[in-house]
Batch of 2 targets.
Target 1
Amino acid sequence: MSTDQNEKKRPEIFSAGRFSPVQEMEVFKVTADKSVRKILLKRKDGKAANAFKAGQYLSLQSRIGTSLVARPYSIYTSPKLAEEGFYGIAVEDFPGAFAGHWFGQLKEGTTVRVAAPLGNFVPDGQKEIIALAGGSGITPFLSMAAAIADGELDLDLTILYGNTSREAEMLQEEIAALQEASERVKVISVYSEEKDKEAESGFPDARLVKKYARGDYEVWACGPGPMYDFLKEDLPQLGLPAARIRMEMSAVTKDPELLPGYPPEAIGERYTVKVLGLQDVYTISALAHEPLSATLERAALPFQTHCRSGVCGWCSALLEEGEVYCPSASEFRSEKERFEGKIRLCTSFPLSDCVVRLDGEE
Ligand code: FES
């Protein structure tokens, strides 16, 4: 457990100016679907939910005990549904995890705070996208498919959807309905551990892109971390310019000790982190294997966190003293940020005692 020496002076949740506008939403309907629970969120005041572009994600925020937490989830429903006050997300339960388990257990009627939709994984003029999806990574593509079916996106979308087997494939009902609704949407199942006449075998990869691409296409990918490692080796054989390959880095960074370059001497260590930039100075205890974002959440300190994968930059902070480990696959800082000593809390693991100044504060 983190120790917070200024417990009585904790800033109130979401009241600080550093938080983006949030909507109060109710968990309206929960439906179990394979390894996920489909959650339909409804805006509590009955108004339209904040508009979004197909491919964007939401950041759900809540207080768990004394901690303030946020986790990102891609929207799989149509932007049109937001006009009626709804978003659909697919949430996986992680029983051993802290916030991942809490959000995975959300019940109908619960109120959550939802930050305005974010993310740049949105079509911007492409005519054909070959989507490589792994597991729950299909969600942003389903939202795009829904927007195509609604006539809001002018795009041909072929989704190569990777799972171990048909049994593991989630959101089958939605997939069938969207293919029915638009000839421009195709979903090809790809199973790695099962032979099926109606599906491809193996993984969504360059071989299958070549088979299904028709015209002037781009390749977009969304899935678990190992899928990106594989695709970085595999996709270059397509000979596409880098700008025509996009990967949604939605994987939360965890288990740093398994990643390249992590110093073994830090395994199991605990450090002290001094946090500056709030009304008071906070000194909290940090575990080496947790990103600093989790450390600050446990101590109920307010800061912006959305993507949890180092991409959005909202959790930027200045590392005034100390050393952190940032996995190379999660390194999205600009050269300028690195030169200035900026870190992203969600992808920074402490390797020593640290002093961190939250961004935007002098
Ligand atoms: S929450 Fe997006 S970079 Fe950390």
Note: The pocket of FE2/S2 (inorganic) cluster is lined by residues 305-308, 310-315, 344, 346 (CB under 6 Å).
Target 2
Amino acid sequence: MFQSQEVFGCGGGGKPRRTPPRRTPPTPGGSDCFAQICSSNPSNQIRGTDRWGSGAYGAGRSGGPTQRGVDIVCAVSSRVYAPFPATVVRKLTVYSSSRHIGKPYNTGLVLRGTGAWEGYEVKMFYVEKTVGDGRRVNPGASVGTMTDRASADPGMTNHVHVELYKDRKLMDPTSFVTC
Ligand SMILES: [Zn+2]
């Protein structure tokens, strides 16, 4: 069972903010940045701060560990896209706590990078996977549908939580998300 870092809440009622523009384009494995992740958010806007915390990488969570990814604002029922060329690995369960067990939003998926993104892996939370395991997808290909994560926490801004790993080590995806 996958234990989320976000047992204590991962959302925001606050106004989403744009992060400042980056100065240097990232070149992970020689590739470009992430494709658009959510059909209702063309700029990959990251959730701003609210009483639950911030959508930024490493942001605190009251009574819990820090946030291990970034939160990409995403409206319910939006299509969710692969950020880079990848193989669909599996579905995941976000929370193991009883409050979330069996809820439609308690789901996500794992993608493993191919080509220039070999060695990278991404976990996307609150997304209902719509493609089969083992499928190869291009950046921007639809891989799922955004659930209603906010239904469990009134005032939350719905978002896809995105965790990036390189050679199985967690890394900060921010520079790949907002370039
Ligand atoms: Zn999050």
Note: Residues 174-177 form the longest helix (4 residues).
